[in-house]
Amino acid sequence: MSKARIKTYARVWDAIADTPEEAANLRMRAALMQQIAPNGGNNLQNGGKYLASGMMGLAGILAGMGLTGS
Predict the structure, then answer these.
(1) Distance set, CA 24 to CA 7, 8, 44 (Å)
(2) What per-residue confidence (pLDDT) applies to 2?
(3) Has residue 12 been placed in a domain?
(4) Backbone phi, then psi, for 64, in 5-degree steps?
C-alpha cells in the first residue's frame, strides 16, 4: 500500500482555481467583498455606506496586490 500524497497550498484560492490568474482574481474579489460587506454581510441595511467605503479601499487593495494600471 502506498501513501497518498497530500498537496498543500498557500491560499484556499490557489487550491480551487485552475490557473494562477484565476486565483488572483478570486483573491481580489474576496478582498472587495470584505470591504463592501464587513461582518459577512450581516449588516446590509447600511450597504450603501459599506459600498462607498469598499470602493474607496479598492485602490489600496489593488495596489497591494500589484494590480494597478500604470
Answers:
(1) 19, 17, 26
(2) 75
(3) no
(4) -65, -25
